[in-house]
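Entry 14. Two folds queued back to back today. First construct below, sequence then structure tokens.
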Amino acid sequence: MTIEEILRRIVRAHLNTIIACALIPLALVALVELRTAPTFSAQVRLQTVSTAPGSSTEAEGLSSRVLALATTPQVVQKALAAAGRPDTSQDAVEASLHRITAVRLGESPVVVLSVLDDSAGNAAKTVNALSKQVITFMNQGNRQPFDRTLADAKAQTASALARRDRLQRELLTTDGLQARANLQVMLAAAQKDLDQAEAQQGALVLSDVSRDQVVAVDASHPTVQRVASTLVPRSALAVLLGVLVGLALSVVAETLRPRIAGIRVMARALDAPVLGSTGQRRSPLAGSMSLAARRQGVETVVLVGVDDRDEKAARQLLAGMLQDRQETVTGAVPVPVQPSQVPSQVNGHLNGRLTGKHNAQHADVPRAPEPAPAAPVPPSVTMSSAVRFTDRYGVTPAEEPTAGVVVVSAGTARRSNLDDVQDMVRAMRWPVVGVVELAPRRGWLASQ
């Protein structure tokens, strides 16, 4: 199967289905977008460290820590309460999952903390309270070990100071040379311990002073802006998904009920040539069918459609040819022709009774009358005078041995309908003179 046949069978034959599958999700997306309230984003920038991170991995680690703290449900709930919104724990969980983000700015130590909300004021209050919660925890969360170490250093300094002072007082009240020498040694050791304790305490205080503190850059004035609409990307995704679903349905439909992949495929299946198209003038088309019929010894041409649409087109072609013949022969105003009342369903190709009692009920193209001496018959009428055009119900028993079939079709009928036509042709033992292509209607749904 060629690409053209695939496009005919799957795309063109099921274009309505594909378009419907694309428009339905697009309409749903547009409806949801219209009913969704606008969303506002409030942002606060936090400086996590004073020096630039050494790599993007380190910067990503800082932003991940901020995000992990900011999306903790208990922290979010406290922030909501501080912002004047005492929401439940479920609201805090929903906000932490879908409304809070933290993004690093390149490889800098600055992290952007964002909160989404339906109200601009609530978004600003929430992000402000949440940033304070995050800053407090990051600055105070790991101070307990430091505070204990500093307290121990202060206690050691106080103990060393008290011991030194005691030894100094004892030295002042001691008279013996040996005793005073011993006290001086002990006093020197106590002074050394005091110096070490004070040095340790000073180092801890210095490290506390020089430690990086998380600070908010713009906590007092958060940046609040309206979130851009996602209608365009969501619509594009909906259309793409709808087209894929439509194509899948078309493939399933073609698998279960295959169609004919074009007029040439039908002609090859019927082993007949394509004689023309209904889009051209009827006189040359009738001449082509007449010539092909005479070459095969056919005197009565039966116009047959493959499905209901093709059958209707065949009746219209037959009626138009009848009108053209009357205008050509008589030169008079054409009389309205009532075509055969062919049943609308074509499923019963083999159930039609090709008997003479139907001849009076169906129109056909009569043989050209004998030309009068005063009004000679034009040559085009003479060329086709030996061939009569009718439908399947207008064939008389006497014409059955010399009848042939011309199939009128758009080339998009189902295989089952073509099988019915082939069964009818085999049953009647009529040769297939040729195939006439049904010209597509104008418009973007012409193939339907």
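Second construct, same run, same settings:
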Amino acid sequence: MVSGVQAIAPPKSERKGMWEGQQISITRGPLKGYRGLVKAEDHNGVDVELDAMLVLHGPKRQWVELQDIQLE
């Protein structure tokens, strides 16, 4: 760090990914028909917190490929 210069973090909205915080529907794969909220993402997929009413068994959070989801 240069003396007298502070690093400024970008606004929270710029740090979030494009899909984070969005409601999605899963359109393909073993979780087809499920809905959830995107918690994290990378260039291959998203970490989704599934709707609790739809999940009877197993973890609420699942990793889903981008090609298998659609924004609601």
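Quick look at the second one. The first helix runs from residue 12 to 15. Residues 17 and 50 are 18 Å apart (CA to CA).
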